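Hey, can you fold this one?
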Amino acid sequence: MDVRAGSLKTGLPGRPFADELMETLYQCRGVRIERIVSTGQVMPEGQWYDQDSDEWVLVVAGAARLLIAGEERERELASGDWLLLPAHCRHRVTWTETDPPTVWLAMHFSQTEPMQSQ
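Sure. Predicted structure:
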């Protein structure tokens, strides 16, 4: 058994970086889990993420705003907030907090079946 452990809040930058820091924590067939650290990065106006897989994203620390194509308002995300973005749900990050850095936990997966509500 290969037990791994870590903290999503270690190794955070002390100052803003030009690019987001992305670290793959786990990957297997159809699933990728990554930590993303944002220090003020945003998507340029007119550019959108349009991914082939579903993405579940959680803001662990900091805050962010996302705009989903077709929605009139940005969604504000604070520590503890999460979204499930289906494949090809066009979205863009319009703001991320710099101090403290915004730490995301993102899970990308395909071939999903909807979870039954409880």
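The CA atoms of residues 24 and 113 lie 24 Å apart. Let me know if you want another pass with a different chain boundary.
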